[in-house]
């Protein structure tokens, strides 16, 4: 579907896309402006405020929930999930792409199955298992473990490993390298873009995850920001002078790291990278 | 053309296994062939965690659903299929609640999935062309996807608020004097829930479509043009058949995601008005984790899962059949 330049449709396309983009970006604008306003209002006329700027909303929410501590918890939770996803994903992806073994087909089906089982269906037995069975309620480990494998990551790694030339692996094996050594010194350095893609794609999940850490943590000092923010909204917002501003400030804080990462690494969110997961 | 599509998609499904490729490059015997157990060791952590945190809870859930399982009661008597029977007893309160929530879930799927299939495809077609600013637009449309459901819910609650929301503010400026009850009355609640979900997740579907479009062989379009095919005919006879595996993937994932909708309803409408937007997952969470009737909640989970498996299988069969 190639188009030649200077078609009459060109400006129509730009008009449509620009309009749609404006509608799409509008809630972001609303959130960020509101976070820095003394009294965020909902009147259309005040969407481009000229005065009333403040940092007080961030101070207000920080006095109610430990903003820094919550961010740190989010970071620990996310880092743990990423570590598991990348390590186990690399190993599994390498085995699926580069090693021949009995039961590869069955493993593939198993992985598709993991992708199909929605977390919500497991959440009740999982909750009982983690809190009662393993005694991991109110721990980082209990938060992280159920999310430590990610099928999409395995698919992405498999796809990238498959694309590498066979000779390279043969040469390494002739030189006497063990498979683990090959993964570490040859395969992983060659699939850096896949690594970045996996980190970025999986970062979003745990960073924003609300339900599971919400269930598993009763101790406020362990709660990630997504959870403590929700608690703030339902419990203490009424007693803050400018709850709307504070809530928007919290939301901005939560969204900021992902949006920054997304903007910085935008090119890794490309079609071919994410799409490679699909074609598994 | 369909033959090409079939081969292409078959290749995608099975994936180019390295085994036959090895035959093309005969290699000298080496002392370090991978040991036969190496692949299993590499897969072990994945399988172990899968077993512990997916398989075990799945079986435990089934077991719970056959008991009168309460988190706080020491006695959890075996009740056989009673929990399931309760859900099929028309005048039982739980059955009414359950099927009402299933109706809400089904309605949401039916309303959201066509939009989440069609709009991203149109957008992907637009963005697949070469033009200035393409990267920028792609970023803007993908951006909402990086937000968490808590932020999404929060933002739209402000924007859609019936009395003070900005959306109604704009509508008032356009001359709509009666404020629209976006979050409190049907059918507006559905418009809001579906609209917010489309805004939030369509970027991801677009990116997947884009990946598919970039794999379509340009030669097929050229051939179609030589045959005098119009833009529309090219779309119907080249793009769609070539995209079929991708469409199947997007459809399956979107149906599953919509059927498991929870956060949007929970945060935006709270299941209101009168539980009309309370989805199945919301009810399951309520019965299991608020009322602690976990056996009953597990039974609900299994019915929902069973239904989803059937729907996914039907999708698969339907789209596969068309292919051959």
Automatic annotation (TrEMBL), chain A:
Pfam family, one: BPD_transp_1
Predominant subcellular localization, coarse grouping: membrane
Bilayer disposition of the protein: Multi-pass membrane protein
Native species: Promicromonospora thailandica
The keyword Translocase is annotated on this UniProt entry: no
Similarity comment text for this entry: Belongs to the binding-protein-dependent transport system permease family.
Name listed for the protein in its UniProt record: Multiple sugar transport system permease protein
Transmembrane segments: 12-36, 75-96, 108-128, 140-161, 182-205, 245-265
Gene Ontology CC terms: plasma membrane
GO biological process, one term: transmembrane transport
PANTHER family linked to this entry: ABC TRANSPORTER PERMEASE PROTEIN MG189-RELATED-RELATED, SN-GLYCEROL-3-PHOSPHATE TRANSPORT SYSTEM PERMEASE PROTEIN UGPE
Alphabetical list of CDD domains matching this protein: TM_PBP2 (cd06261)
Domain ABC transmembrane type-1: 71-265
Subcellular location: Cell membrane
UniProtKB keywords: Cell membrane, Membrane, Sugar transport, Transmembrane, Transmembrane helix, Transport
UniProtKB/TrEMBL annotation, chain B:
Membrane topology listed for this record: Multi-pass membrane protein
InterPro entries tied to this protein: ABC_transporter_permease (IPR051393), MetI-like (IPR000515), MetI-like_sf (IPR035906)
Keyword Manganese: no
Gene source species: Promicromonospora thailandica
Residue ranges, annotated region (Disordered): 11-31
Chief location bin: membrane
Bilayer-crossing regions: 40-64, 107-127, 139-159, 188-211, 246-267, 299-319
Keyword Cell membrane found: yes
Family named by the database record: Belongs to the binding-protein-dependent transport system permease family.
This protein's UniProt keywords: Cell membrane, Membrane, Transmembrane, Transmembrane helix, Transport
Domain ABC transmembrane type-1: residue ranges: 102-315
Gene3D superfamilies linked to this entry: MetI-like (1.10.3720.10)
Protein's cellular compartments: Cell membrane
Signal sequence interval, chain numbering: none
Stated name of the protein: Carbohydrate ABC transporter membrane protein 1, CUT1 family (TC 3.A.1.1.-)
A biological process term (GO) from this entry: transmembrane transport
Entry's Gene Ontology cellular component terms: plasma membrane
Pfam families: BPD_transp_1
